[in-house]
Amino acid sequence: MTLPLFLRPYFGTAGRTLLTVCSLLILYSLAAPVWRWAIADAVWTGDAQACRAAAGACWSYVGVKLDFFLFGFFPPAQQWRAGIAMAILVLVIAASLLPRFWRAPLLAVWAASVAVVLWLMGGGAGLAPVASDSWGGLPLTLLLAAYGLALGYPLGILLALARTGSIPLLRYVAVVFIEGLRGVPFVAILFMASVTLPLLLPEAATPGKLLRAYIAYSFVAAAYFAEGFRGALLAMPRGQTEAANALGMGYWQTMRDVILPQCVRSSLPMQVNTVVSFFKDTSLVVIIGLTDFLRAVSAGSRDAEWLGFDVEGYAFAAATYFCICFAMSRYSAWLEGRRGGTVAAAPAAGQTP
After folding, report:
1. Which CATH superfamily is domain 134-290 in?
2. Cα-based distances in Å from 122 to 33, 71, 118, 291
């Protein structure tokens, strides 16, 4: 009997057949208990007593705590504001992912979204004020990730240009900035921003805890973006710059119209990897007392009525992070395919310290 073509890589030979059968058995032995716990024996509705009497997962706990998971310690009566702010942020991000919106007005939309989101979250102008220390949950995670990376991305490009440029002072400043931030753990940078900065500045001039975390997050992201863009710049053929110079283009016009568009395209995998990594790193703000999405899930498990169901909460958090990160990865693959893949590597265009 001739095997169908799609089965031949798995059952084409005796060795492949044995390996496939063993792999399926191992997969079944792992998946079956998870299926029973998460689906078959799970409790989807009911109270804590019903969950304790069951052998499976208690998803009713996630349903009861969902508001707290999403919004943390944000005042319950004002959570609609955080929900609208999160929706606005998601819409702006979604619009930014579509190439047809990649125009100058998009910058104005981002600037307007900052004003509206901060007004909804912080209050004022008719809304009850809410201290930034009370912001939390998924809106805080998205706010830090979106606006932090939005600042770190262009700053990373400027640092890469400075490090590969011909001006020694700018080059060494960029080297110190990039290597200094990349060489220190992000947790240590957050801790320094939270503890050390208030000691160095007058109390009136000390930024709030959230702003300090945002600045640290943006600067570290810029350092990692800069190294990725530097690699893309060094991989560009010399002929690109020489041809632009022959046409009478200046440095900034060459970078804007010739070099950077190709660098951005060729470094898409690096960019997505950095975005995914830093999106997950928003959970590190717990070290300075901010309640991000993961911290809210952890805090919810301390409710005396629902003790013992923290695994379900962490499973929900893991699924949320996975869905968002997987969507980023698939978007990157779609964008690479749409724009014809990446630029092939070429000899280095310059030297850096």
Report:
1. MetI-like (1.10.3720.10)
2. 46, 14, 6, 15
What are the domain boundaries of the chain?
A: 39-72+291-336, 76-129, 134-290
Structure tokens given for 25: 């058995």
d(CA 132, CA 118): 10
The full DSSP string for 214-273 is HHHHHHHHHHHHHHHHHHHHHTS-HHHHHHHHHTT--HHHHIIIIIHHHHHHHTHHHHHH
| Tokens 């063993």 -> residue | 22
Confidence at residue 349, expressed as pLDDT on a 0 to 100 scale: 42
> What integer is the mean pLDDT of 153-157?
93
For residue 99, what are its two tokens?
């190439």
* Assigned token pair, 69: 């998971």
pLDDT above 70 covers a percentage of the chain that reads 95
User: What is the pLDDT averaged over residues 303-321?
Assistant: 89
- Quote the mean pLDDT of the chain: 86
Taking CA atoms, 129 is separated from 71, 112, 140, 212, 216, in Å, by 16, 20, 16, 20, 25
Contacts of 195 (CB under 8 A, 6+ apart): none
Does residue 342 register a pLDDT over 70?
A: no
Query: Do 228 and 149 form a contact (C-beta atoms < 8 A)?
Result: no
> Residue 287: its pLDDT value, please?
85
Give tens-digit pLDDT for 316-341. 999 999 999 999 888 888 887 776 54
Q: What whole-number distance in Å separates Cα of residue 291 and Cα of residue 284?
A: 10
**pLDDT for the residue numbered 226:** 93
The pTM (predicted TM-score) of the whole model is: 0.82
The Cα 189–Cα 125 span in angstroms is 35
Q: What is the pLDDT of residue 210?
A: 86
Tell me which residue of 105, 107, 352 sits closest to 231, measured CA to CA.
Answer: 352
- Nearest 5 degrees, angle CA 272-CA 277-CA 283? 140
Six token digits for residue 338: 């749409």
Q: How far apart are the first and last CA of the chain?
A: 64
